[in-house]
Amino acid sequence: MSPTMSLLPTEPLQIVEPFSGRNDLRPNLVGLSREELKTALAEAGLEPFRARQVWQWIYWHGVTDFALMTNIARKTRERLAELFVVARPEIVTEQRSVDGTRKWLLRFGDGNEAETVNIPEEDRGSVCVSSQVGCTLTCSFCHTGTQPLVRNLAPAEIVGQFMVARDSYGEWPTPTETTRMLSNIVMMGMGEPLYNFDNVATALRIVMDEQGIALSRRRITLSTSGVVPMIAKVGEVLDVNLAVSLHAVNDQVRDTLVPVNRKWPIAELLAACAAYPGARNSRRITFEYAMLKGINDSDADARELVRLLAPIHAKVNLIPFNPWPGAPYECSSNNRIHRFAEIVNAGGLSAPVRTPRGRDILAACGQLKSASLRGRRERVGGLESKAAV
Ligand code: SAH
Ligand code: SF4
């Protein structure tokens, strides 16, 4: 490691421990792994098979009131309610875009906030879930990276985001895979999921459990800015779809856009991707590429992208840059984006241009935390202090 490396803002600098999600002293049963739930209930004197019943009430039926858990004796339900809660994050606002996108600003027990978005499409809906409040990384085109306050979200806060979305659509009990509106999860909200891997993994294992939310791993995509040493672990532990924020085809440019690249440069990143389990045609790795005018959008860049990704079963998501106040970039023109896509397509890679969704409610990529910051400022009467966030 070079002497400058230790100065890079790539470590979780300001992380404080996640809060359980509420001020109530009773522990929240949401977010516990199956084993942890069994232990918690055993300590309360319940038989082991009760854990299965409670799990199904929480994650299959979406119940938050113990009184509704009717296959459990009334006395036991009362005891459960004395000891525990089944809690969701608090909804501060719910906004609906003209294009059907819904965004929730959620508040956790310590007052911190994060945003969750649902992007409905014809045959599915992708819920974009946050893994951290803010982000310790400082990608120069992402507004989330400019936020001062960062903490990891707890498993309850991560799985709770999806449960809030399901509440909003009335999607309980768990529908069949083909009929559900909220059919996919993308870990593409605020934060770097691989800097909060244990909590993200616990939350996603809960989401994938067949006796609960029952979302198949094929319906889950985890996006990373390129935390190389964790990529193999994602494959081992979760084996979900992988998306990688590439955004540039050489280290010089990527160093400025995605500074974590100085630690783990493109060649190392692509080697980790090539080794990702199941990176076969049916389950290609998605490479995200924000189109930035004059920075990464030339014909030569497109050709180099094709060359770099040739050894990997890959597809490319071209994301028109979503501007934010003070952003040092502009979005490439439509013509440029389509020309770039043509070259990548001609090189044998699928490269859809991702239509920005929910821009009217600031729900598009890279716009998330900025909205909650602004919203909070308005709610506290225009207070500009960052400490108030
Ligand atoms: N931290 C993870 C997860 C966030 S995913 C990651 O970086 O992969 C959000 C995606 O939107 C990432 O690919 C990110 O690079 C991209 N993005 C961030 N700001 C953007 C902006 N202003 N316009 C377009 N895409 C942006
Ligand atoms: Fe963090 Fe991802 Fe934004 Fe980079 S693009 S600052 S890793 S949220």
Describe the structure in your own words:
There is one protein chain. The chain has helices at 34-43, 49-60, 74-83, 155-169, 197-208, 228-237, 251-257, 266-274, 299-309, 334-346, 368-379; strands at 90-96, 102-107, 113-121, 124-128, 132-133, 151-152, 184-187, 220-224, 241-245, 285-291, 314-320. With 389 residues, it is α/β, with parallel strands linked by helices. The strands form 2 sheets. Strands 1-2-3-4-7-8-9-10-11 form a 9-stranded mixed sheet, sandwiched between helices. Strands 5-6 form a two-stranded antiparallel sheet. Helix 9 (299-309) packs parallel to helix 10. The longest helix is centred in the middle third of the chain and has 15 residues, at 155-169. It starts with 33 loop residues before the first helix and ends in a 10-residue tail after the last helix. Mean pLDDT is 87; it is low at 1-17 and 370-389. Iron/sulfur cluster binds next to loops.
**Order of strands across the biggest sheet?**
1-2-3-4-7-8-9-10-11
Mean pLDDT: 87
User: How would you describe the oligomerization state of the chains in this entry?
Assistant: single chain
Q: Measured on Cα atoms, how large is the radius of gyration?
A: 21 Å
Structural class per helix/strand content? alpha/beta
Unreliable residue runs: 1-17, 370-389
Instruction: Note the main sheet.
Output: 9 strands, mixed
List the ligand species: S-adenosyl-L-homocysteine, iron/sulfur cluster
* H and E string: HHHEEEEEEHEHEHEHHEHEHH
Tell me the β content: 15-25%
Supply the key terms.
binds iron/sulfur cluster; alpha/beta; elongated; disordered C terminus; binds S-adenosyl-L-homocysteine; two-stranded antiparallel sheet; 389 residues; nine-stranded mixed β-sheet
